[in-house]
Amino acid sequence: MSSPQTHLPIPGSTRTAPFSAFRLGDADADAQVEVTLILRRPDGQISADTADVSAVETFAASHMLSVVAVHPPARAITLAGTVAQMNEAFHVDLGEYIHGDRSFRGREGDVHVPIDLAERVVAVLGLDERAAASTPMRMSPRASSSFTPQAVAAHYGFPTSANGAGQTIAVIELGGGYRPSDLTAYFTQQGLRVPTVTAVSVGGATNSPGSSNADVEVALDVEVIGAVAQGAAQAVYFGPNTDAGFYQAIATAIHDQVRKPSVISISWGGPESSWTAQAMDSYDALFADAGALGITVFAASGDNGSTDGTTTSTVDFPASSPHVIACGGTTLTSAGEWVWNETAQNQGATGGGVSQHFGLPSYQANAHVPANPKGLPGRGVPDVAGVADPLTGYQIYVGGQAGIVGGTSAVAPLWAGLLAIANQVNSARAGSIHGALYANPSAFTDIVRGNNGAYQAAIGWDACTGLGVPIGARVVQSVAPAPTPVPVPVPVPVPVPVPVPTPTPTPVPVPAPSDIPALLAYFTAVQTAATQAIAALKAIK
């Protein structure tokens, strides 16, 4: 291993072992590992700087690491090598851990890079294999009522004159899969057309139905979108459930030049405390790229209330990214709509709170977001909401059976469908819409009843349901691009011609008829005067 003085730690790369996880020993030194290095985002552009790419390739060669893939638009380079080579290259100590019934390769402490890469490389993902995210979906065997997705869309006033035609919605999945036969059965039973759904493999992950919980999540996402935005195509990006695999799946969707999605729906996430800062910042830059490219990103805010399944108040990532629309949840009955909180019945509650990693974004400057648990300003979660309570959940079909499912993971695809409709109606990709939503509170029905644990619903934005639930047509109008002003032509002044004075001919005295020489001189003078007069007239014209 090279001298520590030759390397610097990557800020925010520190890892600790998961709670109740145990290190069994060193990872197999000869086992193969793939890592993804994330490069800095150059000022004024998205793609990686070519000099940064070259520097990483030189580093890889010096440590006998193979360059598997270079993706400049995503600022990502994937390298492969053995555990021993990775330990040497990044000054880490990879081990084998066990957590519950799952074993994984992991690490503790910082990741290091050579000094000449310290400003170029902002993250190294993939050294640690622990699951990056989970799905907040909840399947309820004892729902008191349920809705079809199209009934929820009608309740929220989604426009019926458009169906998302011409748009592609990207769906990010980290496990499971869908069966075409399930989709055919579901949409046929609903009296709807079966939408166009395409599976996209990322990092070796595939559409692999067979995992019950993950399959339910995939079915929920695809069926909600397909029911509320019948004309939109769907591309389902299946990636490995690691910090590198999740990043690659999102990056592939954003930069897909074949399907070109205009909306992304993400129903997977985890509490901020389970992520490294280097990963959250890298993802956030990726989501900023999406907005700049006209892509709107939605993510579920979590289903475990204000603690997000931890022992303290926290928020779920990637919903907490300032460049993502975070989606909270409600309970909807004939008696009204309020914050979803069924923790008393072990049926979850909407996630929400204030980020301890991301600062207060400008669009929330007047939203009265409370301080985060550290007493500092932070990004408030969620931004918007929709029906999520599994006890008043969505009807789906998966594994040959009908079921009722809830969770904020249903709200992200619901909103994704609405934005696809908006893009069709407005004939434009909406891109980043936070500013438009916060500037148009009348596009929402404010939810003012209930709590998610630490936070109480209130008039205006709150950390339970954000701005509220959508009034569909108004949301579509609020995200429409501002009309381009038509320039008023400036009249061009017409030059006024300067009058040319007409010369007054000098009178020539007429000589006596007997004076022949004088007569000749006279006629010559007359001819000269006439020539000058003609020339003057031509000059005036």
Question: What's the helix and strand layout?
Answer:
Layout: E1 7-9, E2 22-26, E3 32-39, H1 50-62, E4 66-71, E5 76-82, H2 83-90, E6 95-99, E7 102-106, E8 112-114, E9 121-125, E10 138-139, E11 145-147, H3 149-155, E12 168-173, H4 180-189, E13 197-201, H5 212-228, E14 233-238, H6 243-254, E15 263-266, E16 270-271, H7 277-292, E17 296-300, E18 316-317, E19 325-333, E20 336-339, E21 353-354, E22 380-381, E23 384-387, E24 392-398, E25 401-406, H8 411-426, H9 434-438, E26 444-445, E27 469-470, H10 472-478, H11 516-540
Helix pairs in contact: 4-5, 5-8, 6-7, 8-10
Average pLDDT number? 92
Q: What general form does the structure show?
A: globular
Whole-number radius of gyration? 34 Å
How is the main sheet built? 8 strands, mixed
The low-confidence runs, each spanning 5 or more residues with pLDDT under 50, are: none
Count of separate DSSP helical elements: 11
How far apart the termini lie comes to: 93 Å
The total beta strand count reads 27
The proportion of residues in beta strands is 15-25%
Helix fraction bin: 25-40%
Protein model, in words:
The structure is a single chain. This protein is of the alpha/beta class and 541 residues long. It has helices at residues 50-62, 83-90, 149-155, 180-189, 212-228, 243-254, 277-292, 411-426, 434-438, 472-478, 516-540; strands at residues 7-9, 22-26, 32-39, 66-71, 76-82, 95-99, 102-106, 112-114, 121-125, 138-139, 145-147, 168-173, 197-201, 233-238, 263-266, 270-271, 296-300, 316-317, 325-333, 336-339, 353-354, 380-381, 384-387, 392-398, 401-406, 444-445, 469-470. Strands 12, 13, 14, 15, 17, 19, 20 and 23 form an 8-stranded mixed beta sheet that branches. α5 packs parallel to α8 (411-426), α6 (243-254) packs parallel to α7 (277-292) and α8 (411-426) packs across α10. The protein is globular, with a radius of gyration of 34 Å.
